[in-house]
Write a structure and sequence with these properties.
This protein has seven helices and five strands, in the order H-E-H-H-E-E-E-E-H-H-H-H. By secondary structure, it is α+β, with helices and mostly antiparallel strands. It has a domain at about 25-120: Beta-lactamase Inhibitory Protein, Chain:B, domain 1. A hairpin with a 6-residue loop joins strand 2 and strand 3.
Amino acid sequence: MTVYRILPALLACLIVSACGSLVYKQDIQQGNVLDSKDVSRLEPGMTKRQVKVLLGTPSISSPFHEERWDYMNTLAKRGGKTRKRILTLYFDDDALQSIEGSYLDEADIAGEALDELRKSGDTPVQDLESLRDEDRSRGTPGS
């Protein structure tokens, strides 16, 4: 009789443990997400300030290597392999000298997250003042 009690409990445990693959895992984006257009606009001779305005603050900026900036990005897709991209910029006397890294090889992938955020169906958020103006023009009470 104990077999009839243990067998359903064992089957229930197996079924519940098999459902572990149904758990939602979200994509994890970390680091600098650089737009491919911005990366292509880098030119030798640009100052550190110009580069910072174009790309933002680097992920890694060492006080021991002030002439080297690293922009890093990792994208871990759910159920997929983690992709790592690096863009290394070398400066000489505040002027960009050379560019290297895997961001150049995968420039289209680098802006993938930005493109997903810029879907055309998204409606822009209005400010409070324009919403009040719409209410006034419709004659909505409380305006």
